[in-house]
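Help needed: design a sequence for this.
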């Protein structure tokens, strides 16, 4: 099911790319970057690199620093997947430098985590720990629970690789607590959204009832108006008939001869 969703997203992005042939370089770069991310998640590294490079070239023409930093990050991850660590290190360092220039904490955290992954792949656990710890510190400074959780899990895995199970368990406990806290927040927000939806539904239902009631009242008023109109016509006809009768009787009385006594 997940694979089918990814295929649908990929097909949609390819169609968007075709439709944006005459669009700006920035818009085309966005689609290439999305396709590259998709291929990266599927570990189709060569396709990911191809689209990241295309996006980077398009962004370079407009000196879009933020986009270039993101594509550098993506290229670093992709080259890590194919174990070309020299190229991976160069792109990840570029991304980290760009994040500092842009003062962008999210890119900085992701760069730290990606560099940690790269060193972990090379069995350089001490270096990997250093960058994972920096990712955790920045994540906690800016209170980004998602990245705090990722950093804690990375640290737990690294300490486990070092057979330091006490530290591994400590960081995994913290990771679990963050995940539970985040899930509780998500559940609370979901219930609040449900309550708002329910209240909105009840309000709409009440409004619908009032509208229908107003329509019924209007129909009833129109019916009463019609009845009153018919009643007035009947009364007028009765009055006309009575007047005609009185007039006829008067004419008959006048026309009768006077009888002598």
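Sure. Designed sequence:
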């Amino acid at each position: 099911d997940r694979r089918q969703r990814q295929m649908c997203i990929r097909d949609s992005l390819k169609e968007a790319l075709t439709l944006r042939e005459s669009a700006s370089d920035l818009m085309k770069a966005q689609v290439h970057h999305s396709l590259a991310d998709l291929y990266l998640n599927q570990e189709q590294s060569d396709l990911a690199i191809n689209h990241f490079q295309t996006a980077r070239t398009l962004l370079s023409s407009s000196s879009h620093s933020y986009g270039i930093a993101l594509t550098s990050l993506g290229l670093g991850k992709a080259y890590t997947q194919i174990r070309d660590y020299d190229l991976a290190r160069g792109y990840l360092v570029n991304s980290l430098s760009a994040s500092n220039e842009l003062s962008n904490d999210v890119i900085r955290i992701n760069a730290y985590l990606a560099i940690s992954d790269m060193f972990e792949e090379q069995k350089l656990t001490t270096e990997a720990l250093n960058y994972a710890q920096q990712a955790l510190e920045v994540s906690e400074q800016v209170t980004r629970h998602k990245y705090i959780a990722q950093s804690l899990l990375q640290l737990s895995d690294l300490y486990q690789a070092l057979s330091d199970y006490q530290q591994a368990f400590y960081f995994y406990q913290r990771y679990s607590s963050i995940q539970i806290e985040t899930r509780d927040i998500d559940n609370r927000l979901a219930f609040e959204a449900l309550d708002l939806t329910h209240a909105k539904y009840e309000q709409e239902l009440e409004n619908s009832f009032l509208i229908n009631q107003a329509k019924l009242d209007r129909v009833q008023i129109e019916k009463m108006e019609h009845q009153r109109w018919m009643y007035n016509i009947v009364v007028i006809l009765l009055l006309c008939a009575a007047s005609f009768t009185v007039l006829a009787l008067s004419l008959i009385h006048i026309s009768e001869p006077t009888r002598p006594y």
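Residues 165-255 form the longest helix (91 residues).
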